[in-house]
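User: Need the bound-state model for flavin-adenine dinucleotide:
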Amino acid sequence: MGYECVVCVKQVPDTTRVTGESMKADGTVNRAALPTIFNPEDLHALEAALRVRDQHGGHVTVITMGPGAAAEVLRECLYRGADRVILLTDRRAAASDTLATSYILSRAIRKLGPIDLVFCGRQAIDGDTAQVGPQLAEKLELPQVTYFEQFTDMIDRTVRIRRNVGNGWEILQARLPLLVTVLDSANQPRPPAAKKVMQYKRAHTMEELRRQLAETQPSLSEEQCEQELGRQVEQLQQRGLIINQWNLDDIQADLQWCGLSGSPTKVHRIQAIVLTKEGFTEIPPTEAGIRQMIGELIKDHTLG
Amino acid sequence: MNHRHYQGEVWVFAEQEDEHLSEVVLELCTKARQLADQLQVPMAAVLAGWNVRELSYRLIAHGADKVYHVHHTELEYYRTLPYARVLTTLIEKQQPQIVIFGATPLGRDLAPRIASAMRCGLTADCTDLEIGDYTDPKTKETHRNLLLQIRPAFGGNIIATIVNPERWPQMATVREGVMRLNPPDPKRSGKIIDETVQFTPADLSVQLIERHREPRKVNLKTARTIVAGGGGVGSRENFQLIRDLAAAIGGAVGASRAAVDGGFIGKEHQVGQTGTTVRPALYIAAGISGAVQHRAGMEESAKIIAINWDKEAPIFSVAHYGIVGDLNKIIPMMIKAIKERAS
Ligand SMILES: Cc1cc2nc3c(=O)[nH]c(=O)nc-3n(C[C@H](O)[C@H](O)[C@H](O)COP(=O)(O)OP(=O)(O)OC[C@H]3O[C@@H](n4cnc5c(N)ncnc54)[C@H](O)[C@@H]3O)c2cc1C
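Assistant: Bound-state model below.
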């Protein structure tokens, strides 16, 4: 038996570390200056899937959509026990909003063939929208169970799920296939396993291998480079160390629904909340001083 | 694009549970009323459930011109798919130009499902909504009277204004406590329109087996603003000052461990390493020294105001605004300033 599980994860800028240093002169955030991390709730989604496989058998496939550097979170998944990882990367997917993102992810998941469970983190810390999970469920025509905490029962194709709705909890019964969005209260994600780190630290995408080669052997001609690359790929492939990379053509995505053209939401204006690098604005303990501070907070939308 | 779609009504999804409208719904009605007046179109609420028709009158008193009411046993308790069916059916039939949801756990489950089905835009957790024009930077086409959806982004470090010029309807979610709530006007009149909706077997495939609700507790994690008091507040009685300021700004009440240990307030309010970690848009720390264990739980707040009479207190090292002085004098001044702005 066993269950075919898919986990969607995201590499995100560590928005909790936005400081004066990471603001550009024009007041916008310099994403490049921020460290990237595995989106916290996605680690819980991965853990939930790994537990299903460990208990009932099956496979865990992890998909991430992002730039080439997002391969890092896929290695993190391999270190924790994922069976297969896929990097979905394409310049034409840039600037996708949640609707376009969920469409692209749905195309990738459909390419995987029949699946039983899709796991997403409840939300990503760079947008905090919590929209991709439910939108992906709709695109895949699957029922959704948001705010997943645990399976209370899993008998064949029928599952019972406890979900936490903030002011209480409920237990839902559903038939597979199904999509769940996972809360951080669901479980304690396992750390990377030392043995798997040894095994998979050399797992790379083609793009990464090409970049490494350009750095370590800059004198190679283009032809030599391709030859060497071919040799490396073959070697790594045999050991299961090539991270699959798909683009929008591989998943037969309709470009109309991807990237900018597939994104109904447009950013009209961006206004920076100016962060000071150090020190604070001292407000005199007077009525006038306080009135002015409150006025500023209302103006910049901190107070509604 | 179909301009006709941008002439429809302004809608609020009237979330209810156990025959009670959720608090945010009435706030949304106040806002939607303003937007509808500006656009000169009717404002309507969508009320779905089982035996909840009575709630229509509250929605009307809070500004609705119409209530689309759907009564069905399958709608007694919220489940995503039947509720999504109600909304998509009615949206297609009545063609509203704007639909607003509360950014509650329920609203955040439902709205994206509908947005995906309608292939329309959705902006989460808006802190303000306005009507305005938008010129496409590429085509130079100007779209008049769009919904401007204003929200903090990037961990609260920027404020973005989002528009949906091409796809309809324009949808947004709004957190509780963010919008002003106007008092009801019991003399207003409105129309209740009973609608019926057909469910498919797939819509009913997920069953609710067990349901447990707890009386509303402090929810520091989702609060947009928090007012926290520390040892410096001095007593349980004096902690009322902190509660009053929180009430004035519509925020939650937090505390340091010294305040909890001192018995000023319950442990569930504690912020910090051994309490709750919070990241609100605004954190006001009054009479809190700012020990590292406390800072660990709040220093990621988008804005921090520290009130402490010791100007060397470490809390000032994470503050954006610092007020050096006696909290017993400063907090009443803050409450006064906020009430002045509101009136
Ligand atoms: C393992 C461990 C875990 C801990 N976890 C937490 C935790 O989760 N959360 C937490 O908060 N603490 C925690 N602590 C405790 C922490 O170390 C501090 O003791 C605690 O935060 C102090 O609280 P306080 O600043 O409110 O009180 P105090 O240290 O008593 O400071 C009171 C402050 O108020 C100011 N003040 C007094 N009167 C006034 C006035 N009238 N007007 C203006 N200012 C005034 C004073 O100048 C002073 O700075 C933990 C400690 C340990 C060891």
